[in-house]
Amino acid sequence: MRRRRFISGLAGAGVGLGLASAGVVPAAAVSGLNRGAPRVWEAVAAPQAAPAAQLLDVAAAGPDLAWAVGEEGRYGSVRGTALTLVWDGTAWRRAAPNFPGHLGSVAATAEGSAWAVGTDTSGTARLLAWDGLSWREADFPGRGAAGTSLAGVATGPRGHVWVSGRNSAGSVLLHGHGGDWTWLEAPPATTTVAPSGVQRAPCGDIWVYGGELVARWDGDSWTVLPAPGGVRAGFTGLLPVARDDIWMTGYDYGVGGPPGKPPGVRLLHGDGTGWEHVRAPFGVGVLTGIVGDAQGRPDRIAGWDFWDQTRAHYLRWDGTAWVSERGPLATTPVVMHSLASVPGSDGYWAVGSTQTMPSTSAQPRIER
Q1: 286: closest CA among 343, 332, 333, 346?
Q2: pLDDT tens digits along 18-57
Q3: C-alpha distances in angstroms, 91 versus 28, 69, 287, 336?
Q4: Residues 144 and 131: beta-carbon distance below 8 Å
């Protein structure tokens, strides 16, 4: 599950950044069997929030139950208050708690439970569990301690939960089951930054990613993949189809450039030993998340298109290439920060904000 923030420094920029030609392969050269049908996206009403609001992540247990998390009332770089919404099958409504800070990641289970992680304004990591009506605080090793941070959360069968983050000993993966939480051994790689995301592969492997770290935990030991590289790059999503078939989404600002220079999209495909760039249908902007289909194969990507900011730019894997799908036209910018498939249906939820900057006019944006 991906950790996002307002896209800064992009307003008024008139130049773009494309992917470097070296190592770029067409998407048609990458194997894949999924051929999802084209989709007509629609906007869904979101509850009114305090100014400078954004939704950072979304997860669904089924058609009648989903959660979205983020923040509201942000002032510049100063965090505001955590924003939590729940879908009851008819409408999105606000849910408690709303502590000073933000929630950046949420994950659901088919049984109707969910977990969320974030940080309060004191810098303390927060781990929340859904109790059926609201979010409650959960305890974990290192809670409140200096050097402990939590960034992403993923769930698995039989109540297993994994959280990416970092503790003072350098561990980057926290495992929970049955109320017991354990930091796993640190990977054989030096990192001072908490991995921004965590994903569970269909085979049961757990992947953490963010910064210069991409690593796989197989239940016994770590495998660290080569760093994906990039200049002023960030990675927003990872889809582990298999150990030799991994997709990553993100952005790259490149070298230099004028103030307000927009990023170029990053779409990478890995075979477990290295990474290749894959051409996307648009080149200037950000790819903000990727999801697989029911079999774990490539399916959809959400994105922000610098040259057409009043519609979300989704990508669909048609079996041979990533092709464009556009969200509904809006009267504001549309920045979708996260994408989730809905179990038990052919639907999706996408969440974000109506502004690229934390301005007073920014409100939550939801599409499906």
Answers
A1: 333
A2: 333 334 555 544 544 455 678 999 999 999 999 999 999 9
A3: 39, 15, 27, 19
A4: no
What is the pLDDT averaged over residues 208-227? 95
Q: What is the pLDDT of residues 266-299, one digit of tens each?
A: 999 999 999 999 999 999 999 999 999 999 999 9
Residue 11, phi then psi, degrees to nearest 5: -65, 135
Nearest to 193 by CA among 225, 149, 223, 235: 149
Q: For residue 329, how many other CB atoms are within 10 A of its CB?
A: 10
Instruction: Specify whether the CB–CB gap between 177 and 134 falls below 8 A.
Output: no
Terminal-residue alpha carbon distance, the chain: 18
CA atoms within 13 A on the CB side of 278: 24
Query: Torsions phi, psi of 243, nearest 5?
Result: -65, -25
Cis link prior to 97 (omega < 30° from 0)? Answer: yes
C-alpha separations of 83 from 285, 301, 302 in Å: 26, 24, 21
Q: What is the pLDDT of residue 80?
A: 93
Is residue 287 within 8 A of residue 303, CB to CB? The reply is yes
| Domain residue spans of the chain | 24-367
Burial 59-90, CB ≥16 within 10 A → b, else e: bbbbeebbbbbbbbbbeeeebbbbbbbbbeee
Global confidence as pTM:
0.92
- CATH node for 24-367: 2.130.10.10
Say what the alpha-carbon torsion angle 60, 61, 66, 72 is, to the nearest 10 degrees.
-60
pLDDT at residue 359 is higher than 50: yes
The tokens for 75 are 């002032």
